[in-house]
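User: My advisor, Dr. K., asked me to get a structural model of this assembly before our group meeting. I'm new to this, so sorry if the format is off. These are the inputs:
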Amino acid sequence: MLAHVVESDAQLVARCRAGDEDAWRELVERFSRYVYAISVQAYRMSESDAEDVFQEVFARAYVNLPKLRNDAAIRPWLAQMTRRLCLDTIRAGAREQPDELPEPGGADDAIARLDEALFVHDALATLPDNCREILDRFFARDESYRNIGDALDIPPGTIASRISRCLVKLKTELEDEGRKPVSAESGG
Amino acid sequence: MRYYDEETLAGLLRTLPAPPQAWVEAAQEIPLARKGLDDIVERAREDQVFRAALIADLETALEGAGYETNPALAEAVRARLSL
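Assistant: The format is fine. Below is the predicted structure of the whole assembly, which you can bring to the meeting.
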């Protein structure tokens, strides 16, 4: 199976700007986990609040995309927007229930880890379909060997070894390409 | 360049779980929703009867005109038309 050539963030944003609706769908797909993870992991938001933040981030991103100065900076731009909306939601909740004000002090560390996770996830997207699918199902979707075996039509007894081989491929991809995580500078 | 061992990679892959698919699909449909919004606003500016109906009962007027309403769309129409 062929490995995938993944379009850069800047190329994807450029297509969105040009009004390509497929590009928008892909942009949402690419960053949905990141935006979600910032709200539920860095800011410990409830699912309900996280959903509101999630929809608002993408609604604002769609409207304000033409104002983004550097297309390659879409990720830090989305991160910054998500942080602001999470903090607004937390402050609004604190006004109603002051005792429940969470401590978002560890958010910077959590987001740094999410940046690194997204970087690895981007590398995952370049792997062949079989590896990408099995790693995503096992690690990110927390599916059992049985479910993975059924979905991918492979014997459950071979899944552990396939996961191990695919992790090695992912490691090689990260090392061979000399990939470098992007710093979190602001883009908007 | 940073070198990763398999355990670290596994941990980082676990760090980005997928959000509910319905959230992703709703966000992917934003351009379509915005397009509907533009249509409604343009029609309300040209058609005073439709505009009056929106002012009287926005959700009912939208449904009557064949638009699938939701709170976000209704709020956006109110904002765009200063209702």
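One thing worth pointing out at the meeting: The domain at 9-176 of chain A is CATH 1.10.1740.10 (Rna Polymerase Sigma Factor; Chain: A).

User: Perfect, thanks a lot.
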